[in-house]
Write a structure and sequence with these properties.
The chain is mainly α. Helix content is 64%, strand content 12%. The protein contains 6 helices and 3 strands. The protein has a 3-stranded antiparallel sheet. A hairpin with a 2-residue loop joins strand 2 and strand 3.
Length: 143
């Protein structure tokens, strides 16, 4: 539960920054990915972030309307088209990353460099552990 509480505190700390930049929930990660990796398909974004393609489509609709990304459909199918960050999106990504750096400085205040590296290593390992196949999910309707 502690990790869950830290996650929510981190989101609350960053929320005003996200709003000031003009982005909605989940959008900063998409424009940051596109800025870092270049144009890609909607499917690639969904796969990378492990989220439903329909959710990516809705997010891209909003980002496109805000001028943060452009999409070029491939044979009238937006899912297979190319998504690209605009200059406005790249500037928003830079501002978001700076806000994240500020949050990390605050969060890790008082940590030694060695503790910071250990903490990052623990988080990476915990994520990988959760990604490994484990016990089957409970059946719906069963308690």
């Amino acid at each position: 539960m502690l990790l869950y509480r830290v996650f929510h505190t981190q989101r609350a700390w960053l929320r005003p920054w996200r709003g000031a930049i003009g982005l909605g929930p989940g959008q900063p990660k998409v424009i940051s990915f596109l800025t870092r990796n270049g144009p890609c398909s909607q499917r690639q974004l969904a796969d990378y972030f492990e989220i439903d393609p329909a959710a990516v489509c809705r997010m891209l609709d909003s980002l496109e309307k805000g001028g943060f990304v452009t999409r070029r459909a491939h044979q009238n199918d937006r899912r297979t088209g190319v998504v690209e960050v605009t200059p406005k999106g790249a500037a928003a990504s830079d501002a978001w990353l700076e806000a994240c750096r500020g949050m990390e400085r605050q969060m890790l205040r008082g940590f030694t460099p060695q503790e910071t590296e250990q903490f990052a290593d623990y988080l990476r390992r915990a994520r990988e552990n959760l990604r490994e196949p484990s016990a089957p999910a409970p059946e719906e309707g069963r308690s």
